[in-house]
Amino acid sequence: MHLPSVISAALLVLAQGVAAAPSARSSTLVRKEWRTLTKDQQLGYIKAFKCLQSKPARTQSLYPGALTRYDDYVALHIAMTTQIHFVGQFLPWHRQFLSIFEDDLRETCYYKGALPYWDWSKDVATTTSFSESPIFDPVYGFGGNGAYIADISNLSITAALDIPGRTGGGCITTGPWAGINITLGPDYSFANNPRCLRRDFTPAFAHGALNTSVVAFTEAAPTFFQLDRRMQSLELDLAGVLTHGGGHFGVGGMVGEMSDMYSSPGDPLFWLHHGMLDNIWNQWQRANWTTRKSEVGGPDTMWAYPYNYFGDVPYKNITTAFVLAYGQLSSNVTIKQIMDTTAGPISSYTYA
Ligand SMILES: [Cu+2]
């Protein structure tokens, strides 16, 4: 699982500058499922997204390959990877990451809506239906799969596990991001490494990991600790990979950007996938708000129990006092500050 770079990343991350103050809260935003947006709203989101990709980076002095204001987000995710995955702060960190991005789309690029999300459980009724999802529409969506490449021995493998049933591997050729260059990554790299956006759909795997029963199983978690585990992984093999890995590996397969634990925000679908995970967490919280508005848990250190697949690692259990860091992109916040989506430091939002 990219272990050498995991270790070096752990040593290198964090010494980042003073953050800008978050902008003032507007009225409550309603985050909607992509296919329920009007065509104008879909195009509005894509336009704002591309607008961020046309503005200069703010963090290039720290991350040389960060060329655009969008790359700032990819770079931060890469820098933070070993502190925000397979840890209890996984869901909280990504929640605020999405809000910072949503706020930037609105403040910098005059986007009028909320961040959309992608309910992939609507797309996996059969072992092949995933690829037919309207989210991959060439005009009103994010474009589709790469062409099938049978022999991937010359490509860099992005997935940490062997994902069966790959159907793509090529550069995407449809949609608003066909032909764009990704620069940051793969893995723990901040260099300018221009390459195309690859996708490698694994529809049969997505069918198993992202279906409505899996969502129901996740939502039925009795504790935050269990919820987090059901999302991130129950064990270190494919059978333990459910929603979080399901969305990443379902789109990214063996060689797609979405499968790269570090640079996966290079695929614009990253945000909509994580929006769905945040939606599930929020629904889980609202099902027993009194308790769950302040319930978190899990290790503060990567690969510690219950993710101790490579041996035991010392750790502490996180609490809501844990501080989430966003480098130069936004102020640090405590988990306590982001537990209620309608009362966050940047925005107030709900899911429809
Ligand atoms: Cu992530």
Automatic annotation (TrEMBL):
Coiled-coil region(s) at which residues?
none
Identify a single GO molecular function assigned to this protein: metal ion binding
Q: Which Pfam families match?
A: Tyrosinase
Where, by residue number, does the polypeptide cross the bilayer? Answer: none
- Report the PROSITE patterns cross-referenced here: TYROSINASE_1, TYROSINASE_2
| UniProt key word DNA-binding | no
* Signal peptide start-end: 1-20
Keyword Transcription regulation found: no
Where is the Tyrosinase copper-binding domain positioned along the sequence? 85-102, 267-278
* Keywords of the record: Copper, Metal-binding, Signal
- Record's PANTHER family? TYROSINASE FAMILY MEMBER, TYROSINASE-LIKE PROTEIN TYR-1-RELATED
- The entry's protein name is Tyrosinase copper-binding domain-containing protein
**The organism's lineage?**
Eukaryota, Fungi, Dikarya, Ascomycota, Pezizomycotina
